[in-house]
Predict the structure.
Amino acid sequence: MPDSDSPPAAVTVENLTKVFKAGLGKQAFVAVKDVSLTVQTGEVYGLIGPNGSGKSTTMKAILGLLAPTVGKTTIFGKSSTEVESRRDVGFLPENPYFYKHLSGLETLLFYGRLCSMTGRDLKDKAREMLVLTGLEDAANRRVAGFSKGMLQRLGLAQALLHQPRLVILDEPTAGVDPAGSRKIRDLIMGFKENGITVLVTSHLLEQIQEVCDRVGIMAHGSMVREGRLDDLISVENETELVLANASPDLLAEIRSLVESKGAKLVRSGHSRTTLERLFLEATEEPQ
Amino acid sequence: MFRSFSPARIWTLASATVTQLVRMKIMAFLLVFCVIVVAAGFAFPVMNPEQQLKLLKDVSFGALQVFSVVIAIVSTALLLPRDLEDRTLYTILSKPVPRYEYLIGKLLGVLVLIGAGLILMDIAFSAVLWLRQNIVFAQALAALKQEGTATPETIAQLQEFVGRQGLTWNIHLGVLAIFLKASVIAALSLMISCFASSTLFTVVIALLTTIIGHGQGLIREYFLSEGMNQMMKKAGSALLAVITPDLGVFDVVDTIINGELVSAFSVGVMVGTAAMYVTGYAVVSHLLFVEKEL
């Protein structure tokens, strides 16, 4: 039982079920089945799963964009059905689109005003967000001419503009190049350092692994695994040892010691970098 | 402190809607209107003075009606489905914005655009009509003098006639009637777009309802006049009024073109009817939209 004096969890989802009604003669579609999860304040929570697993529906229910068929969702203790619950939330949808007739800066001013921001404070914050997301040069360009990656960064800027306590990111790296993707990862790490709660979905599991404290894995509308990332991915009966500058003699010695003690060496070999790291190192090298 | 009703948020949405429509070059219609008015004002100098002024008013009011009805239907039909298709709605409604504020903001934006457009066109129309009535008066006076019939009585008659057919407050009341009618059509289109599956569906249904709404009086007269008791007539009229707005209430333009005055009572009826329909459609829109799954 949570302590009644402790601050409420950033997000709670209790027994969420969402059924979409179909037309006449068609069967209703169950998008989410009895899903429960809790995101504690200051935590980075990753919601992962294949396409159609119910991640986006769960996120929409949390944001109050969809009404649950059964169950309830809250944000900082307030029901998602209350508009006030969205005051401290920044949301980046998957492949965001904005009013094409507005410029980058005008877009941020528009969203800022919707969050009751005004005057110099709003303008300064909008400029700050454009710099943070690397869009300062596109401030006065119409959104219609933005690339997919730029739209994604603008989406992130509008989500962070009003300094929310909770940031919900739906596939934040979709359509973004590896460098931009790494930047978004660094931003999420920065949120964590500043105590901002993050709920993120991504198909890039390596990134989720790098930034998340806890993860939930969804499949066919249900939560199939949930818990601390370290607990979920650790293999109980295996131990990893990484050596630098080990001579062949030393390795042979270790191998024979392992066998003499009744243990088994599962694998050995050179550590490998990731393709992402290799790409970043190669593309960031000075010409 | 969160406020559940914020005029500032509504205005933010309304002004973004106005900017969107203006940048879609919708106001280019104003230029076309000016050309039509100038052409109607000066293209037929051989007609008699009454015909010249009537034709100018007829063509100008026709263009004003087309502008307001087209903008009311098309721009309103574009707004909500497009926001939904583009998923712009997600980013807006994930901010602390109640859904009714979103709807009011969109409707207000369309009404501001139509209102501003009508004011600009009214100014252009009034200027051309004033210029034309002075030219017509000068020409008629010259003709009277040439015929030798320019007595104080005939000149006074001419002045009275041109004054009645020329620029009067009645012209602006006609523009007000057009605006009120457009407000009702815009609110109706918004309501349809809340349950419609596409922009095209909204446009077609709104257009059909508008056409039927103009002929509501005729329909009532034809179907509800004979062989019905009073109760059935009332029920039939009420049903018709619910299905389509009675747009005939706003048709005062012909009266104005003929130089007759629009009474204060008629203006009151128009304002009251428009307020009733706009409020009614806005409430139904909210009830439909608040339940909409995004």
Summary: The mean pLDDT of chain A is 87. The first strand of chain A starts at residue 11 and ends at 20. Residues 248-284 of chain A form one domain.
